[in-house]
């Protein structure tokens, strides 16, 4: 079996620096003469991506289930080219992937119920969509060989330029998103499918760049293992759970 390219995903909260680091990694790989390609999700250039872009800019409203499925469809429409490139030896860098889709959708909550009398204890918000339902449309997507999660505290991300320009860039939302990302990372690590690495996105740009290269460098020689699929082992259980929202 000839060697294939590595599938590398960079995830993180908004303003964690992931897009900058994804582009830097692409340049570093190309400078090292390693065939590589950068993909960004959502891909806002496709018909589906344009609907998503309008939603993210708060220019349109969509049902929470509908927008989640659009995000998933936006990934699925690129799957054939991802597989083809990997099999031809090209390393794929992905700026956001299914994990972001799950984290942002599963973090949505209903507004707190109005109570006739003030409660002594704060009422926990109720999720609009279950974690299992959010995960189900992405079952069997190509699994990354390496996922780098740039962790940053929401209050630190808030201090960075451009924060608040899009729908989800609110501190309380980002805190809930971070909690779901932690759950996803634990799940990926325990599944044995791919590797999930948490890096400090609050460090200086050059320090984060070095940490990323240290993780990616062992994969640059190519891989002989077949491309795996996300959550495929638990497909039946996940699909059954997806029936309940």
Tally the helices: what do you get? 10
Average pLDDT figure: 88
Low-confidence stretches: none
Radius of gyration: 18 Å
Q: Which architecture per CATH?
A: 3-Layer(aba) Sandwich
Structure description:
By secondary structure, the protein is an alpha/beta fold. The protein has one domain (7-110, 125-241): 3-Layer(aba) Sandwich (Rossmann fold), CATH 3.40.50.300. The protein is 43% helix and 11% strand. The chain is built from ten helices and five strands. The protein has helices at 18-31, 47-56, 64-76, 79-87, 98-106, 131-135, 154-158, 171-191, 205-216, 235-241, and strands spanning 7-12, 36-40, 91-95, 146-151, 195-200. A five-stranded parallel β-sheet has the order 2-3-1-4-5, with helices on both faces. α1 crosses α9, α2 crosses α3 and α3 runs antiparallel to α5. The longest helix is centred in the last third of the chain and has 21 residues, at 171-191. The chain is globular and about 60 Å long. The model has no long low-confidence stretch (mean pLDDT 88).
Topology:
Blueprint (H helix, E strand, L loop, with lengths): L6 E6 L5 H14 L4 E5 L6 H10 L7 H13 L2 H9 L3 E5 L2 H9 L24 H5 L10 E6 L2 H5 L12 H21 L3 E6 L4 H12 L18 H7 L4
Parallel strand pairs: 1-3, 1-4, 2-3, 4-5
Short description:
The chain has 10 helices and 5 strands; from the N terminus they run E-H-E-H-H-H-E-H-H-E-H-H-E-H-H. The chain has 245 residues and is of the alpha/beta class.
């Amino acid at each position: 079996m000839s060697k294939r390219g590595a599938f590398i995903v960079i995830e993180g909260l908004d303003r964690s620096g992931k897009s900058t680091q994804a582009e830097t990694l692409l340049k570093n790989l190309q400078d090292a003469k390693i065939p590589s390609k950068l993909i960004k999700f959502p891909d806002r250039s496709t018909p589906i991506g344009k609907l998503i872009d309008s939603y993210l800019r708060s220019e349109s409203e969509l049902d929470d289930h509908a927008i989640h499925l659009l995000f998933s469809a936006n990934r699925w429409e690129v799957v054939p080219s991802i597989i083809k490139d990997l099999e031809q030896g090209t390393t794929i860098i992905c700026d956001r992937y299914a994990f972001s889709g799950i984290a942002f959708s599963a973090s949505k909550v209903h507004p707190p119920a109005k109570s006739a009398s003030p409660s002594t204890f704060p009422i926990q918000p109720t999720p609009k969509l279950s974690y299992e339902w959010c995960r189900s449309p992405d079952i069997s997507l190509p699994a990354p060989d390496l996922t780098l999660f740039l962790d940053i505290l929401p209050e630190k991300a808030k201090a960075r330029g451009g924060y608040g320009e899009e729908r989800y860039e609110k501190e309380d939302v980002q805190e809930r998103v971070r909690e779901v990302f932690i759950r996803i990372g634990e799940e990926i690590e325990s599944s044995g499918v791919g590797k999930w690495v948490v890096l400090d996105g609050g460090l200086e740009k050059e320090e984060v760049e070095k940490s990323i290269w240290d993780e990616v460098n062992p994969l640059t020689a190519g891989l002989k293992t077949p491309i795996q699929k996300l959550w495929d082992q638990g497909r039946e259980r996940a699909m059954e759970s997806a029936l309940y929202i």
